[in-house]
Amino acid sequence: MAVQQAAGADPYFPEHGDPRYRVHRYELALDYRPGPNRLSGTARINAIAGRAPLTEFVLNLADYKIGRVRVDGRQPHYTHRGGRLRVRPAKPVRSGAPFTVEVQWSGNPEPVNSPWGGLGWEELEDGALVASQPIGAPSWYPCNDRPADKASYQLSITTPSAYAVVAGGRLLTRTTKASTTTWVYEQSAPTSSYLVGLAIGKYQTVLLGDPGPGGVPQHGHIPAQLLGDFSRDFARQPQMMEVFQELFGPYPFDEYAVVVTEEELDVPVEAQGLSLFGANHVDGARGSERLVAHELAHQWFGNSVSIADWRHIWLNEGFAKYAEWLWSERSGGRTAQQLASAAHRLLSPLPQDLRLSDPGRKSMFDDRLYERGGLVLHAVRCALGDIAFFRMLRGWGQLHRGGTVTTAAFTSHVARFSTEPVEELLQAWIHGTTLPPLPGAGGPAAS
């Protein structure tokens, strides 16, 4: 695993995350009552101080009532304002030393305000879901909210027994007492705070395909009335999983789940080992199948291989966009070359002021970033040829599995698989703003 920690505060969200320490593990025990939308929780956070003694540190947490804070069992001094829980331990933590933080909180969860609307915990008509990218995680638990700080998680969620709880990871236990049920999930793979997904609702659970020995279990959690359409729309996901494992390398987690809510979502949202779709993404005609491929691909690119900070988001979205094109090509649809040509035509008349390597906070979810990011991968494929390109792609996922990456790491990685210089090509596509010419014709995906 190659980890490239960002050295300082995230340039796009300097109030989120604290680079002076890193978290090893979160253990969250939550109690949620959907009717009054009431959440109470206890977090046990195992962390390690950085290179300097830790006289204070910050956790991100929205406006909840704080019941208790402890550092290594002792009461610290703390303040909680503006979504930042600033903690000053009774005794400074030595550089490089492990320490444990305990936090109790309660209140009515609501999304965190952002330039893209509310993010994080969202109360539904009958349940709740969490979609945190990029800064919504503090809407429901205290965290070091920076994508480079990846940790393992155990989530224990208690709700009324009528509701199912779905989280990314492996379900360890489900225990019913009186009118409530406690669900305990374990996500052992390193996980960024924004990728901790959760859905609470009245769902039916189905198995997608037969994973067989050594296969990846895939489950769908859907409202009963959408089951028929879902079964058609997601029927090819097991085949998609096989294709992506061939092209990208082994699936990086234990299981994969998809949740469809009864309500509409603007776009599907990935979490670690879990993707969330709205009812509008289910039509019985595979109308959103490219999005099914996009979210599945994020499990490799974005989730297992994560970005060091948000400047590099094209490494998430460009790779997932190109995965859409690869799935189309491999499943009998339009080829990647045809889809690249369509993307190039789409981008040509648009303003050419977007720099992939640093799009700026306002443009980090711009459609142009997705399309141009896909074109970068296609340009690299055309330059390397299929054999070297897919070797490069598999190597990227395997070398950085569980770690974090930067744009510079990607360009260096590509150069190792090329017999010709690629610096000018990558400079134009990634660091320039003018749209380069359409990459040449590419052959079929590697088989």
From TrEMBL:
GO molecular function, one term: zinc ion binding
Cofactors that this protein relies on: Zn(2+)
Classification via InterPro entries: Aminopeptidase_N-like_N (IPR045357), Aminopeptidase_N-like_N_sf (IPR042097), Peptidase_M1 (IPR001930), Peptidase_M1_aminopeptidases (IPR050344), Peptidase_M1_dom (IPR014782), Peptidase_M4/M1_CTD_sf (IPR027268)
Superkingdom to which the source organism belongs: Bacteria
Record keywords: Hydrolase, Metal-binding, Metalloprotease, Protease, Zinc
Enzyme nomenclature, EC number: 3.4.11.2
Pfam families recorded: Peptidase_M1, Peptidase_M1_N
CDD domains: M1_APN_like
Enzyme class at the top of the EC tree: hydrolase
Location of the Aminopeptidase N-like N-terminal domain: 26-195
Gene3D superfamilies attached to this UniProt entry: Neutral Protease Domain 2, tricorn interacting facor f3 domain
Family listed: Belongs to the peptidase M1 family.
Protein name per the record: Aminopeptidase N
Species the sequence originates in: Streptomyces hawaiiensis
